[in-house]
Design brief:
Helix content: 25-40%
Bound molecules: S-adenosylmethionine
Subcellular location: Cytoplasm
Shape: elongated
Strand content: 15-25%
CATH superfamily of the largest domain: Vaccinia Virus protein VP39
Keywords: Cytoplasm, Methyltransferase, RNA-binding, rRNA processing, S-adenosyl-L-methionine, Transferase
Function: Specifically dimethylates two adjacent adenosines (A1518 and A1519) in the loop of a conserved hairpin near the 3'-end of 16S rRNA in the 30S particle. May play a critical role in biogenesis of 30S subunits.
Structural class: alpha/beta
Strand order of the largest sheet: 6-3-2-7-8-11-9
Order of helices and strands: HEHEHEHEEHEHEHEHHEEEHHHH
Number of domains: 2
Largest sheet: 7 strands, mixed
Enzyme class: transferase
Radius of gyration: 21 Å
EC number: 2.1.1.182
Length: 295
């Protein structure tokens, strides 16, 4: 293999696919990036600096991983496809910026949704320093991954995530829109949201149906006090269980007593017939505090 040509180039990716008989697995959300401008765009959006500690979710055949390493990052990757470690170890450069690959890159075959960051990362990362998360996300679990990171105790300075445009729109949505919902509220109470770039579906093998968007999420310096984050996210989810129904109707699953529901709705200063998407984030915060946590 000519390792001078980046993995993220169409020619090199095609050669790797032919050499290892790679069949992109649809059930694992495999769409490999073959657009060096887009890959560089992700690395720039993540503001990668030498010795940054980066968690990559789903390195695939390594197109983004390679550029993260070349930019100086130390990369810890979670992957579930057992056929990929061999490819990554053969195809990523044996030395990066003078260091051995194994000192700069570690792969763990593990579902990101089962990550135990304190345990997984120790021994490879300096646990006193924060990390950055960078990923071209597997689209079938984009939302669970964002919730998982949002509710984890991972000490991160940014999440730079490629996702379908439709999910990116939900992250930045405002009340009274169809995109506004539990994901919007979970994210906006914890993080700032910036759409960094759009990537055409033609930049992937195989081509997904829709274009993608790279979104940069950074923890807010001044987070509103939502109480317990998991409880807050759960209450919001329940409020949107049937988004065409009124808040009062949705609350029936959380508070069975009608007088108590009436009291809670009055306490947050809204009409019982209001629909969940009409509530401001501050009102959801008040609401979650009125509802007892489940055991
Ligand atoms: N980073 C590569 C790229 O940009 O070409 C591949 C991105 S592909 C959209 C998503 C990757 O996530 C695949 O390699 C897939 O096997 C992996 N993946 C799927 N489910 C996963 C999970 N639960 N945990 C970790 N990785 C996962």
């Amino acid at each position: 293999m000519n390792n001078e040509i980046p993995i993220g180039s169409f020619v090199r990716t095609q050669a790797i696919i032919n050499r290892y008989f790679v069949h992109a697995k649809k059930n694992l959300g495999q769409n490999f990036l073959v657009d060096l401008d887009a890959i560089q765009g992700i690395v720039q959006a993540a503001e990668i600096k030498p010795d940054d500690q980066v968690i990559e979710i789903g390195p695939g055949i390594g197109s983004l991983t390679e550029q993260l390493l070349l930019a100086g990052a130390k990369v810890f990757a979670y992957e579930v496809d057992e056929s990929l470690p061999e490819i990554l170890h053969n195809e990523l450069p044996a030395k990066v910026n003078g260091a051995l690959l194994q000192d700069r890159f570690k792969l763990l075959l593990k579902d990101i949704l089962k990550a135990d960051f304190a345990k997984d990362l120790s021994g490879f990362f300096d646990m006193n320093k924060p990390v950055k998360v960078v990923a071209n996300l597997p689209y079938y679990i984009t939302t669970p991954i964002i919730f998982f990171l949002n509710q984890s105790d991972l000490n991160f300075t940014s999440l730079t995530l490629m996702m379908q445009q439709e999910v990116a729109e939900r992250l930045g949505a405002q009340p009274n829109s169809k995109e506004y919902g539990p994901l919007t509220i979970a994210v906006q109470t914890q993080m700032s949201v910036r759409n960094a770039l759009t990537v055409k579906s033609s930049s992937f093998i195989p081509r997904p149906k829709v274009d993608s968007c790279v979104v940069v999420l950074k923890p807010l310096a001044d987070k509103p006090d939502v109480g317990d984050v998991k409880h807050f996210n759960w209450v919001v989810k329940m409020c949107f269980a049937q988004r065409r129904k009124t808040l009062n109707n949705n609350l029936k699953n959380l508070v069975s007593d009608s007088d108590e529901r009436a009291r809670i709705i009055a306490a947050i200063g809204v009409e019982p017939r209001i629909r969940p998407e009409q509530l401001q984030i501050a009102q959801f915060i008040q609401l979650a505090k009125e509802i007892p946590a489940a055991d």
